[in-house]
Amino acid sequence: MIEELRAKIKTIQEKALQEIAALQNLQDWQNTKARILGQKGSLTQILKTLGGLSPAERPALGRLVNEVKREIERRLQDIQKTLEETKRRQVLKEKAVDVTLPGLALPQGRRHPIRRVMEEIEEIFLGMGFSIFEGPDVETDYYNFEALNFPKEHPARDMQDTFYIGLRTLRQGSGQATDHGLRTKEKEQLLLRTHTSPVQIRVMEKQKPPLYMIAPGTVYRHDDDVTHSPMFHQVEGLMVDTDITLGDLKGVLHHFCAAVFGTDREVRFRPSFFPFVEPGAEVDISCALCKKRGCRVCGGSGWLEILGAGMVHPAVFEHVKIDPKRYSGFAFGMGVERIAMLKYGIDDIRLFYEGDMRFLEQF
Amino acid sequence: MRIPLDWLKEFVPVRWPAQDLAHRLTMAGLETAVVGGDLEVAVTPNRGDCLSVLGIAREVSALQGRVLSFKKTTAPKGGEAIKKCLKVQVQDRKGCPRYMARLIRGVAIKPSPAWMQKRLEAVGIRPVNNVVDCTNYLLAELGHPHHAFDSRFLRGDTIVVRREKAGTKFKTLDGETRECEPADLFICDEQGPVALAGILGGANSEVRPDTKDIVLEAAFFDPQRIHATAKRLKISTESSYRFERGVDPNGVENALHRVCQLIMQTAGGLPSRDWIDLYPNKIRPKQINLPAAEVKRILGLPIAPAQIKKILKSLGIAGTIPTWRSDLTRPIDLIEETARIYGYDKIPESRPRITVGLQEKPKGRGLYQAAARCLTGLGFTEGCHLGFVGEREVGDKGVALSNPLSADQTHLRDSLVPGLVKSALFNANRQVQSLKLFEWGKVFRWENGKVKEDRCLGLLAFGNEWPSQWQIKPKPVDFFTLKGALTRLFQAWGLEPFETEAQSQGEAVVLWQGVSIGRIDFLNLEVPMYVCEISLEKIIKNYQTQPAIFKPISPFPFVERDLALVVDSALPAQKIGEAIRQAGPPWLETFRVFDLYKGEGIEAGKKSIAFSLRYASKDRTLTNEEVNRAHEALTAHLEKTLPAKLR
Ligand SMILES: [Zn+2]
To answer: A171–B45: do the CB atoms touch at under 8 Å?
Structure first.
């Protein structure tokens, strides 16, 4: 009886293991597991017959059945892993895509290079503690020239050829002139600012030092060629406090040049003339293309002009009622287009304003 | 200005090779290049004294550490007394502080000698004849312009320096007839003008091949007056260029003797024994006091008083300022002189200490930056267009320029649209099929006698919504492209939403806080496009960065119900929305349009519009029954009041 049972258990075991080894999918696995180990499974049936055995024989056979059961369970578990992996691969295979196809093309607009460079300049000066101020594009002679120490009828004014606003215009069609309701005292000659320097006057009229500011904005000059546009952009800067020196001007502007063009560029300061500063300076950076040997880009000099600067002229301080004996300061100005042209290697200023996408998409 | 090296060396020994010299001059404020072995110097407008070989020689000498020694010309001896044949009256003393004249009889007009022609050509002046060439030679050498009249053509024996009546016409020797204004200064004979003072001689008195007797003029004219006239008449001559930058009033006499000497050398003739010199108020050298402490305060570097003195002395400044340096008027000018000869490169760089405070930024800056981020993210590329437009592109408050560059740039723009459209067409003509652009900029209009500057935002779109690609079908842009972009932008700005209202012309006006701030339009051009322009002034003015206030997250689920209504075609969605909001339960959280349909199955003149409504309570889980009840009540209400039919 016992031997018979042992043989029977052995047969069940062998058959079960064979079946398990032959399993192909998870559905069959589920069915097979139920058939072998379930309530009506062959092993469960055997266990039920153990009741008829003597107490001496029961433990040994019980152990045997349990061992067989554990082995079957282990095999089932192993094959389950294999089957699941197979299934996962199959699913992947069914959903396979050509991974070399392009991704979803979401539209992306570009910033204008001028605005991008302008913001870069602003960030550098904000980082150094400067504030940002703005002013009107349509200015008066006083703010654009007189308060900035441009004497009347001085050739210095010709450096900045000016657009003037017509105070009377012809109404379209009617042929009638209108003066737009100007009162006599307002009939001051209006002009388009030739630099953003008027902003320093407007700010200094209202705020007393210390003053660390930049004034970015649009400026206009009566000029039109490959390197000059009748409209362009400038960032003007001003630093006024007690004990500000030409050495400070050099330190701050060198810092700025390194931030925009990299620390490997040399910077030089040489005397120049702008009526609202004295001593005046022109700031050059070494030409990256020729490494100061001279080339077409730098006009053979090895250097590129990028900034005008200087110590605030006492006459300017006097105009805004700041005591030039107590305070000193420096001012500087740069053309944003020029910096962008040098930075990106652009050779025609007109490209900035045409809106050509083949140009704009490069930035 | 071209300075031949050999000419320069007649005035000053030069220690350095040309390249080196050019570099030193550049670093002293005279930007100089070597061209064909000579110096090409760019002289800034404040340095009229450098517009001659002598002027540059003074600089070179100073850079070499010593003041230039300059030998004056002895006056050539002559024959008859000048008062017998010539008188001068200066009626406008302010315009002409000094006037000198001398007569030379019996000159022989012919080409000037080769050496002189060569030098004139080297400095870019065309040789004419010996007399004219001598005056030009001297102009290049000493910086003093002269004029030679043919004395035959001077009517009467008196020269008068004066103004003329407005509208006086005068033919200058370039053949042009100039119309004059009362401020213009003239050299006249007894019958009228013979030269436009300091600018250009008259055609009526110029030296000709058969000229025998000449009157030589040397003068100092008021720089401002010369500038005003030359600028208005758009004439720039070698003479006016120097007079308007200031010549040395006390160098006039030496210059006259030198030119007289040159003429006698090259054209022969005998000068008058003496000469006329009307210089009633002599301009004397000024004194400027420069404390050494000021030098340190401005430059940041202490320079020893002895060294400052030495530098200034090398420039001819020893106690007083030489009269050729009219640009030096106050201590700061001497600080600059000291610094530029000392060398800017020797002044050490320093970093200023600043007083920490809250930095100020313009109010619109944050809005602009947020807009740029938002719109580029939506596929709009930023444009930057010239602010000038033609007359037809502005309204009747357009701001005109009195001196436009060209006929299509006569006005300042009063809208961003023309610039955006030009860009769009530029690209469309270059095979671009789809484009989205934005621009942030000012527009200009006359308002109450002032030019009002208004910051605006412009949007433009044509073609398709997104790049053509394998996964998604193309969708053409439309009105809702721009409205959607604007909606996103207002969200990005954290502003209350705007509204749109249909217009009889164009598409829609944009309303914000009940006021029109702009419009969205369809432009039926060669390439159909949509444009939007809004004024930002009201937004910038009312904008306050308010922190978002956190609202607790509801633990209760929401329930969604759809609602498809058939309504009159003309009934705006906004009206239906308002009705839903009004009649819905307080726990109607949000709703949105998810479908719009016209056509088959829908009666003509009607449309089917479908909303998805989201119900959610903040304090409990809604039951299906109460949602259904509310939704049905809402539907019934809309059917009756709109009216509408449930689809
Ligand atoms: Zn180079």
So the answer is: no
